[in-house]
Amino acid sequence: MIYEKPRFYPAGDRYIEVELGNEMSFDLNIAVHALAAAIRAADLPGIIELIPEMASMQISYDADRISFADVSREVERLYTVSSGSGDIELESRLINIPVLYFDPWSEACIAEYRSRVTDKTEDPELLCALNNLAGRSHLRRLHATPEYWVAALGFWPGLCSLMPLDPRARIVAPKYNPPRSWTPKGAIGIGGAITCIYPDRTPGGYQIFARTPVPIWDREQKLRAFRESLALFRPGDRVRFIPIEREEYDYIEAKVSDGTYEHSMVDYQKFSIANYRKWLSKVELGV
Amino acid sequence: MISRPFFEVVEPGLETSVQELPGRIGHWEQGFPPSGPADVWSFRLANLLVGNDRDAAALECQFLGPTLRFLQDGVIAVTGAEMTPRLDGEAVALWQTVSVRRGQVLTTGGGRTGARMYIAFAGGIDTPPVLGSRATFHMAGVGGVEGFAIKAGQVLPVGQVTAPVTSHQAIPEMRPEIETGKRVAVEVVAGPNDDWLGEEGVAGFLAADWTVLAQSNRTGMRLKGPTITFAPRAYDKLPEHGQDPANILDHGYPVGGINVAGQTPIVLLQDAPSTGGFINPFTVPSAALWKLGQIRPGQQIRFKAITLDEAHEMRRRQDRICTADQALRPI
User: Which listed residue, A45, B214, B257, B296, has the most CB atoms within 10 A of its CB?
Assistant: First the structure.
């Protein structure tokens, strides 16, 4: 459910957890991002930074400049405005991520896990079976169809939680149990109803089935996309996966390593929540 | 500001890193934690003793300190855990201003009490800031010296000293009192998710002795203790929260949060992940975080609940103490 009013919980003397609801839904996540945008625009003295998440956000504040009670009151007021009837347009870049589906590196990682840890169904086949897909081509086509919404970032620099904006493209899967000790950098995985891109070689639990040659974070800031930040995505961005073949994968990888790769990014758009909802209701009628 | 090469790393120690305050602020939503020193109190006194801004970049040494060779005359101060620092073989007093000459070598050993020692240099370490801070987040290779803990052979610069540094000592009553006994009392404020434990679970958690495990580092301090019990709501929840009673929809992780990862509490420290799917029933307030920075594996923590107002008062008190007027006297 989405609560009528935000709930405020102290997290020590410097942070506040603001919960807007307790479900995983696009509507709730949009409410979180709209509230985050409103808090930023209000530029309240003493509010330091925000971590928007699925259904909540963490606010860092300086209690010597603004009290817990004042943060709560101001944020509640902004929530009333931001969740009102008018349309909200959020800054939202569209980022194209080239992807090699069923790549050899993910396959090797899955094979190692199956031989060393537990003989699970291979990840692409598991995704097909659980989502009534005819096979790998169907999985690739479906996964590459929608735009994805960057619902949250975190745990590791740049690690993103992506929700498909088209409900017909929803693919679900359980997480690995036990988790993998490593995942190829750039692997694409699904856990729950969330797609993620692994920013680096890290442990992981999502079912993996593709890989991008494009870095989504770079501590050396070599590419143009990382000039302002070490991480590519911001919450509220949109992502589209572009299927590529091995030849193009190698070409892009070479451009990345010589520092000339330019991320494919559209940043002249805003995301209108009212327009999206209108479209969604048409889609849902069709479904 | 003109910086100059000031010391060479002869031996790096176990994990010695450049830290700075307030840390890396403004990039948490992209997954970059604040980082910064684990024991802010000792860190600030070290900076004050060398005439720096109290938040300037300095070295944090964990368990086993480094060996440094000075390339210039200058001024340093060592605070925090006692790691038997010696300058050309002669014992160096902690908590006071120390002059060093070009060519002298500072050696340190293993810590006898506490876990982290700080070395501040007049002028402040002047490595390039990354995302606005010199603090090291070495898990991901961000900040510090090329992203990581210092390594043998590296030369670190310090900034220019603008005024002559006079010798001071940190007044003993104004230093953090590092607990050397078996049990350490650490304050906590209830929340954000104490309601997931319920009254009984909270009481049980606060009544227990929690042993600090060796698998602890700057991301978190792992604890071992009795079984944690949960309130009915931890079981009666939507499936997207996860299967474990300690699972919650992914949410932000506060520094100091006591993260209940299944049955293992992990106190989230300065390099902790920014978000995750486990509850944080309590949070260690900012003024008590330094205690965690000085606890050794094997010691036990007893948590003591305080109110949010008391946590604010603690912070203000520590903030006042960590000033040259309050904490130092000339020697």
Answer: B257
